[in-house]
Amino acid sequence: MEQAKQKSRSEIPQEYKWNLEDIFPHDQAWEEEYTKAEKLLVQATEFQGRLGESAETLLACFAWVDEIGQRVGEIYTYARMRRDEDNRESHYQALTDRAGTLSVRVGSALAFVVPEILSLPDGKLQEFRQANAQLALYDHALDDILRKREHVLSPAEEKLLAEMGEIADGPSTIFGMANNADLKFPTIKDEKGAEVELTKGNYIQFMESEDRRVRQEAFETFYATYQKQINTWAATLNSNIKGDAFFAKARRYPSAIESSLNADKVPLTVYHSLIETVREFLPELHRYVKLRKKAMGLDELHMYDIYVPVVSEVKMNIPYTQAVEMCLAGLKPLGLDYGEVLEKGFNSHWIDVYENEGKTSGAYSWGTYGSHPYVLLNHQDTLDSMFTIAHEMGHSLHTYYSNQTQPHIYAGYTIFVAEVASTLNEGLVMNHLLNTTEDPKLLAYLLNHYLEQFRGTVFRQTMFAEFEMKTHAMVEAGEALTADLLSSIYLKLNEDYYGPDVVMDPQIAIEWARIPHFYNAFYVYKYATGFSAATALGRKILEEGEPAVKSYLEFLSSGSSDYPIELLRKAGVDMETPLPVREALQVFKGLLDRLETLL
C-alpha cells in the first residue's frame, strides 16, 4: 500500500518527472511566446473580408491559422501540464487561465475564416484550388469545411459562439478544480489496521484488496465524500449538458449526440449499434459476474467486490522499472522501429510517473507538435498501472508517428482512432503474458484481468455512453437533471449491465458524480469501439507479421488526414458494421470459457 501521506512534488526524484523544459526552457520563454501569439492575432484584419480575392490570399490565411494554432497549442499545453503537476500552485492556475483566455481570443479572431470560405461564389473555391497547387495541402480540410456548410453560422454568430467558449467550459473547469484540488478524503484503516489517507489514486488499489473490510470501508468512505456535495455535482453536470444542447441547437443539429458524432463524420448508427451489440452480450457479463461470486465463495456479491482479483493467492507487485520492461517485451511484435521510439520515450523524461499532493489524478498522453509526446501517470506498482503505461504510450507513439509524418494541420487525430492505438498496446502485452505464463494460478489471474479490461472498456464505457445519451435526451426534452434523477438513471443502468447476481449498493447510484469524461460528452463510446478495432488489428499483427505491422504504422502515421472511419477501413476494420464489436465480445466469451476451466 501507499504511504500514509502523499508525497509533495519536491519529494519525487527527478528521474521520475517529465521534462516540460522541452516545450519552454522556462516561464519567461512562455511569456515571450504568449506575446508573439497576441501579435499574430492582429493579422486577422489582414485577411478578414479578403479570402475571395485570390488563391494566394487564401493560402496565406491558412498558413496564418496554422501558425497561430501551433503557437497557442504550445502555450496552453505547457501551462496546463505545469498546473497538473500540482493543481494548488496559483502561479500555474493563472498561466492556465491566461492560456485559456488566449485560446478563446484566437477562436474569436479565427471565427470569420470558415463562414467566409463558405460564402465564396459557386466555383470560386474550385478555381482557387486549380490556380495554386500549394492549396492541395488543404484539400481534406476544405472538403471537411464544405461538408459542414449547413451547420456554420454567419461570421458575427460564429464570433459570438467562439467568445462564449470560456463560459461554456465553466462547468468542466469547476468540476476539475473541485475534484482535483479541493476534494479531500478521510483516512481509512488498511489491512494492518494502520490509518491511511484515501485518494483517488489509491482507491482502486484498495478496491483490489483481499480484505473485504478494507474494500467496503474504501468504497463507502469514497462515495460518502462525493455525497456531501451531491447537489453541486448534479448542478455542474446539468449545466454542462445544457451547454452541449445549446451549441448543438445553435448549429442546427437535431441533437447534441449528432453534433458530436458529425465532427468525426461518424454515423449515428455506429453509436446505436455499439449499444445494441453490447446489450446482446450482457448474458455473458452476467455469467462472468456469477463466476466471480462463486470463485470468491460469497453469499452476496457487492459492487465493492467487483475489482478484486478472483485468484486470491496470486500477488503481482510490479515496480515501475519492471512494468517498463514488460511493456517493451509485449510490444516487440510491432517491430524494431516502434521499439526504438518506445525506449526513447522511457529514457528521455517523457513521463511523469508518481502521484504527489495536488497532482491531477488518472493518466493521459499529451504534448505539442514542436516537442515530443508526454505522459502523466499516477503509478501504483500494480498490473493495472503497468497496462496504463502500455495504454498511454500507445497514444504517445501515435502522436509521435503522426507528428513525424503529417503537417501540423493533420498531425492531430480524433479520439475515435486514438483509442485503437492505446488498447492495441494493452492487448499485445496481455497476449505476451498469456503466452509466457505456465503457472495455472497466475494464468487464471491474467485471464481474470483481461476479462476485467473487457468489462471496464467495452461493457462499462458503453454503459457510460448510454447514460450520456439518456441524460442529453432528457435535457433536450426540457427536463432538469436533479441529483435524484441522475442517480436513478445510473442505478438502473448498473442493474441492467451487472444483472441479478450483484447487490446494488446505494452508493453506486452516485458514481456519475466522479466521472470526468461526462464533461466531454459522447467521448467514452470511442473506448469501446477502439477496443473492438484494436482487437481485430492486434490479431492481424500477430497472425500476419510484417505486412500487418507496416499497415498499422501507416495508420499511426495518418493523423487526421482522412476521416476516422476511413482510416480504420484502410487498416482493415469496418466500424460501420457490428462485426468488430461482436468479434471482440466473442473473445470475451472465449476467455470466460477458459477461466471457468481453471476455477
Automatic annotation (TrEMBL):
Broad class of enzyme this protein falls into: hydrolase
GO terms, biological process: peptide metabolic process; proteolysis
Start and end residues of each Oligopeptidase F N-terminal domain: 116-185
Ranges for domain Peptidase M3A/M3B catalytic: 206-585
GO molecular function: metal ion binding; metalloendopeptidase activity
Manner of cofactor binding, per the entry note: Binds 1 zinc ion.
Coiled-coil intervals: none
Enzyme Commission number, as recorded: 3.4.24.-
Swiss-Prot/TrEMBL keywords: Hydrolase, Metal-binding, Metalloprotease, Protease, Zinc
Cofactor(s) essential for the protein: Zn(2+)
InterPro entries listed in its UniProt record: OligopepF_N_dom (IPR013647), OligoPept_F_C (IPR042088), Pept_M3A_M3B (IPR045090), Pept_M3A_M3B_dom (IPR001567), Peptidase_M3B (IPR004438)
Its job: Has oligopeptidase activity and degrades a variety of small bioactive peptides.
PANTHER family from the UniProt entry: PROTEASE M3 THIMET OLIGOPEPTIDASE-RELATED, SACCHAROLYSIN
UniProt family annotation: Belongs to the peptidase M3B family.
Name assigned to this protein: Oligopeptidase F
Gene source species: Desulfitobacterium dichloroeliminans (strain LMG P-21439 / DCA1)
Lineage of producing organism: Bacteria, Bacillati, Bacillota, Clostridia, Eubacteriales
